[in-house]
Amino acid sequence: MAAVTTGVTGYPSLGAGGARLGASYAGFAARQFGHDVDATQVLPVVDVTAGVRLALDAVCEPGPMVMPVPGYRPQLEVAQVTGRERFDLTLDPDAEHAELDLDLLDHHFSRGARSLLLTQPHNPWGRAFTRTELEGVRDVVLRHGATVVSDEIHAPLALPGATHLPYLAVEGTAAHTVALVAASKAFNTAGLRCAQLVTADRSLHERLTAVPDARNDSWSTLGVVAAVAAYEEGDAWLDALRTRLGEQRDLLVDLLATHLPQARMRRPEATYLAWVDLRAYGHDDPAAVALARGRVKLAPGHDYQPGLAGHVRLNFATSPARLREVVRRLAGAVAP
After folding, report:
1. Least crowded by CB within 10 Å, which of 15, 73, 136, 278?
2. Same domain, yes or no: 200 and 68
3. Which run of H or E residues covers position 67?
4. Can you spell out the DSSP letters for 221-252?
């Protein structure tokens, strides 16, 4: 309100506003993740997907991009948009754990891939990858001289029992990594349009800032204000949110066991999104069935992995009463 009242609604600038944003995020990263961020290497960008495109264009070599799938729908086409082929790092839907297949990653790089779009915490897998897993990624990337673009938009939403480790906090990653972060998922400010590119290597930062102004000019001054407020004043609220989401996650586990006992879901470690396997109920598109029969809207699995049948993505960031109703309606629709 103060920003609107005082007229902070003009064109964005990398001057004082950008500097304040960098310092605010650096403080947040230190408190939340124990990560030492150089505040001068935090660059505003309109949103995370735009930042991914910018990083691919500005710092990644031409060549195919590897992406873990199922993956965030808007990013499934980012390789094509930037003139690249996409090599899928596909999760086995029957695997007990959602893990990155490092052998397949190595194979893709051997075939000519030059970059990895790493989403962590992962949407929709719900994983907060461990240090050992991330060190494995680093070792494969270093072996092939590739680049990592790490989408960490859900970083503040590691749920009770899990922690988020920034990929740039892993030793040996600075020279090959651009990370994307934002307050937008945790603090629900996506419409204000301000994410951040983070680097730990000065040459990578300079390559990002050397792009023409028109390549990165759409981030919002009000988005900066909101991000600074979230990073500087939102810790207590964020703690309460994670506790609440953990309770909702646990409630969902119980509800599925009661109403859809043949459903399979790996217990989410992060985000407010659950990846639910409903193949046992015999519907190729259970989201469509749930909408038609139960008037409950879920995200269809094929949006996150084209051709994948029987899966849905379920948002559990709601009230306990509404979550109970969602699962009750879903069960009535797909398993009458």
Report:
1. 15
2. yes
3. strand 65-69
4. HHHHHHHHHHHHH-HHHHHHHHHHHHHHHHHH
Round to whole Å and give the CA distance between 334 and 56: 41
Q: What is the CATH number of the domain that holds 180?
A: 3.40.640.10
Instruction: Report the C-alpha dihedral over residues 240, 244, 249, 253, rounded to 10 degrees.
Output: 140
Other CB atoms within a 10 A radius of the CB of residue 52 amount to 29
Q: In terms of DSSP H, where are the helices of 6-130?
A: 16-33, 48-59, 78-81, 102-110
- What residues contact 240, with CB distance under 8 A and at least 6 apart? none
**Phi and psi torsions of 245, nearest 5°:** -65, -35
* Tokens 């194979």, located at residue: 107
**Residues 120, 217: one domain?**
yes
The CA distances from residue 219 to 3, 100, 138, 279, in Å, are 16, 32, 31, 41
pLDDT single digits (tens) 82-126: 999 999 999 999 999 999 999 999 999 999 999 999 999 999 999
Look up residue 269 and give its amino acid: E
Asked if 224 and 249 sit in the same domain, the reply is no
In this predicted structure, the answer to whether residue 33 has a pLDDT above a threshold of 70 is yes
Domain range for residue 303? 236-331
Cα angle 32, 164, 228 (rounded to 5 degrees) comes to: 40
Rounded to two decimals, the pTM is: 0.94
Residue with the two structure tokens 């994670």: 242
One domain for residues 134 and 229: yes
